[in-house]
Amino acid sequence: MSILKRLFSHVQPYWKPLLLTAVALLLATGLSLLPPLFQRSIIDGVLVTGDMRRLWQLIAGLVGVYALLQAVSMAEQYIRHVLGARFILDLRVRLYAHLQRLSLAFFEQTSTGELMSRVTNDVEALENFVTHGITLTAVDLLRLLGASAILVALEWRLALVVLIPVPFIAFGLRLFNKHARPIYRQARDRLGDINARLEDNLAGIRVTQAFVQEEPELLRFSAASQQYYLQRVRSIRAWSTFFPALRFLALLGTALVLGFGAWMVARGQVTLGTLVAFLAYSTSFYEPLNRLTEIDNILQQAIAAGERIFELMDEVSDIQDAPEAVLLESVEGDVVFEDVDFRYQDGEGVLHDVNFHIAPGEVVALVGPSGSGKTSIARLLSRFYDPVHGRVMVDGHDLRDVQVASLRRHVAVVLQDTFLFNASVRENLCYGKPNATDEELIAAATAAYAHEFIMQLPQGYATEIGERGVKLSGGQKQRLALARAILADPRILILDEATSSVDAEAEYLIQQALDEVLKGRTALVIAHRLSTIRNADKIIALEGGRIREIGSHQELLARGGLYSQLYQRQLELTVSEGD
User: Fold this and answer.
1) Virtual torsion, Cα 64, 65, 68, 69, nearest 10 deg
2) For the chain, which terminal residue's Cβ has fewer other Cβ atoms within 10 angstroms, N or C?
3) % of the chain with per-residue pLDDT over 70
4) Residue 476 falls within a domain, yes or no?
5) Residue 325: inside a domain, yes or no?
6) Element (H, E) at 335
7) 51 with 110: CB under 8 angstroms?
8) How far is 438 from 435, CA to CA, in rounded Å?
9) Nearest to 501, CA basis, from 518, 482, 485
10) pLDDT for the residue numbered 505
11) Domain check: are 576 and 457 in the same one?
């Protein structure tokens, strides 16, 4: 029941439209209970006496009740469905905002498709709960109470007959809840699997087609869809068996009322008009009872969706601001790694006893074989992760004591795996500085040697570049990513193998641009091509998560250590490729 309580707690802020809906429902419920009384008066007061003048008065009154009932119902339905749409809007935005605050570690362990399923499908499932589950439960309970009171007032003995199926319906409902809830949860989990598979396949469609794996991928997607289908069939089997059985019990109750009622009319214990009215009110009693069982089906689906949503909302970010976190209004760019050890969650250590200092304005390069910890150092400096031991400091502040947002406003990252949004060139470049002027935009693009190819695009800076920049070459994408970072004007710039996907000419031009861009900034450069970091103020060579040597290009070459070996290996490879 805790999930249900949380669902209701999220609905409470909408008390005004809920109150309007409640008033409309009360009025509609009262009006819906009046027609059988008119029918009783027509049978006992008109057909028996022959007073036709009273007949037309009663018909006019009945028509008025029907008209008012539909007007109230129209207003109630409009308010209720707008409330449901608003609730879903706010919940989806709140859930997305929560996702934005979660740490990078969470996203590396959770499939994008699964998250999309929770933000879209599971949230959507709750709209039925808000628009029908809550309000219709209230109106049906009111109708039950009203019909029960009138049934007792009309003929208490027949009222007892009406109640005969109720214990059986209640017992059946309890069994259904116990059986159906895990089925609905599993169905929603399987739907999440489908979304995860679909997102993964579409994102990697070029790889799939390149390796002619369309058929195997189709089989895997079909298998995931089949699992969802089987769970859906289980849920369909449950409610399609259960609800007709409950409706049969209600119909059985109506048959019993008709039988006992006819017997009482024949003996003169009740009038025919009372029996007709009683049958109408017994319908008003059983209809909401039947609908309450169907609403319970909606409720079980909402609980299953709510469990998945609240699981996500209960996720706590590994990276959070400390209670007394400092706001970094300005940054000089002094960076210190002090006795840093780091491991990814449930993994082996990737950094061990890392110590180095970057003075403001220095360009420091990280080199080393794959898996040596270079990218992990960059992630720690951006505080995507925290070290398990030691400190990472900027301007003397431990990053754990700094407001994360204020730190990242002064740090820009250009990754090897460039990500561009499915938007225009301008929107991508201005992502870190939305209010940039045209002059600033062009200057940043020019500095990254991107302006020339941008102007050759069909609409220049307004050109849509497709999902992940699919319409651009690898080198063009990296130059746009570099221009985006330059436009953000950071004090600390991290280049994670940022020129690895460009040709030799573009690399030379970008290197010339970087020489100007990096002046006065602290830069951490993860180098793929060692020839690009000769002019770095300091080179840190890593191996196995440990610093092996630190020095300038010439100093490290003279030592003949790890850096010298890596450099010589690349030089030989370049010569052999040239041959």
Assistant:
1) -150
2) C
3) 88
4) yes
5) no
6) strand 335-343
7) no
8) 10
9) 482
10) 64
11) no
Average pLDDT score over residue span 173-195: 75
Q: For the chain, how big is the Rg over CA atoms in Å?
A: 35
Are 484 and 522 part of one and the same domain?
A: no
- Output the DSSP codes for 130-162: IIIIIHHHHHHHHHHHHHHHHHHHH-HHHHHHH
Evaluate whether residue 324 is within a structural domain: no
Contact (CB, 8 A) for 510 and 502:
yes
* More confident position, 356 or 423: 356
Rounded Cα distance between 445 and 452, Å, is 9
Examine the domain organization and report whether 215 and 348 are in the same domain.
Answer: no
Cα separation, 461 vs 249, in Å, equals 69
Rounded Cα–Cα distance for residues 137 and 144 (Å)? 10
Specify the pairing of strand 335-343 against strand 349-358.
Answer: antiparallel
Lowest-pLDDT range of 67-81, 140-154, 372-386, 536-550: 140-154
What's the confidence (pLDDT) of residue 204? 66
Amino acid letter, 257: V
| Token pair in block for residue 348 | 């082996």
Q: Could you tell me whether strands 397-398 and 546-551 are parallel, antiparallel, or unpaired per DSSP bridges?
A: unpaired
Range of the domain at 478: 418-489
Number of residues that this document lists for the chain: 579
Query: In the beta sheet, which residues pair with residue 413?
Result: 494
Q: Cα(69)–Cα(75) distance, rounded to whole angstroms?
A: 10
* Number of structural domains in the chain: 3
Starting at the earlier edge strand, list the strands of the sheet with 397-398. Answer: 349-358, 335-343, 389-394, 397-398
Distance CA 261, CA 276 (A): 9
What are the backbone dihedrals phi and psi of residue 275, each rounded to the nearest 5 degrees, phi first? -65, -45
Residue 577 phi, psi (nearest 5): -70, -35
In a domain, 323, yes or no: no
Query: How many Å apart are CA 387 and CA 402, to the nearest integer?
Result: 15
Q: Residue 426 is part of a domain; what is its CATH number?
A: 3.40.50.300
579: confidence class by pLDDT, cuts 50, 70, 90 = very low
Give tens-digit pLDDT for 493-516.
888 776 655 566 666 666 666 766
Is the pLDDT confidence value at 320 over 60?
Answer: yes
Pairing assessment for the beta strands 349-358 and 363-367 based on DSSP bridges:
unpaired
Same domain, 426 and 399: no
- Contact (Cβ atoms closer than 8 angstroms) between residue 76 and residue 26: no
Provide the pLDDT confidence category of residue 387 given band limits of 50, 70 and 90: very high
Longest CA span, the chain: 122
133 Cβ contact list (under 8 Å, min separation 6): 295, 298, 299, 302
d(CA 184, CA 191): 11
Phi-psi region of 56 (alpha: psi -120 to 50; beta: other; left: phi over 0): alpha
Quick one: 199 and 90 in the same domain?
Answer: yes
Give CA 145 to chain center in angstroms. 40
